[in-house]
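Morning. Coffee machine broken again, so started the prediction first thing and wrote up yesterday's gels while waiting. Chain of 152 residues, entered below exactly as on the submission form.
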Amino acid sequence: MIKKITINAPIQVLDGDTIRVLRQKIRLHGIDTPEKDQPYGTEAKKLLEKKIQEAKRLRIDILRDDKYNRKVARIYGQYKTKPIDLALFLLRSGLAWEKWSGIRQYRNLQNKAKKKKLGIYQQDNPIPPWKWRSQKKETNSPVGGETIEGGA
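Came back before lunch.
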């Protein structure tokens, strides 16, 4: 069951696909944007901030909770005459990957952004954020299980 809410509270943009309303983190459904330390991560976050600031109001359709206790939702900004799905906007701008959305329009917009070489697709081989995170975990893990002890 979709829970629809309209909010009138401060919104903090945490990254290109996650916001915080009050104390609750809310993740955009069906997309993954570059991490903050990844190429185009800052651009994705700034674009989401801009679209949220420009909206007359936001509607959040909560779909489910994820394994990190975030709400997963489709978020719509109301602009002049029509609402815009913010995930679609990020995909159209080339600043997100479609991921597990089940929505054909998401995949189509991602493919159009690729063809036009928008955003992340200006790079020869953009690394999806889930691979970026995995590579970071591998490089940050201890090598060979060694433990270094210090002391006096």
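The chain has one domain: 3-138. Going to sketch it on the whiteboard this afternoon.
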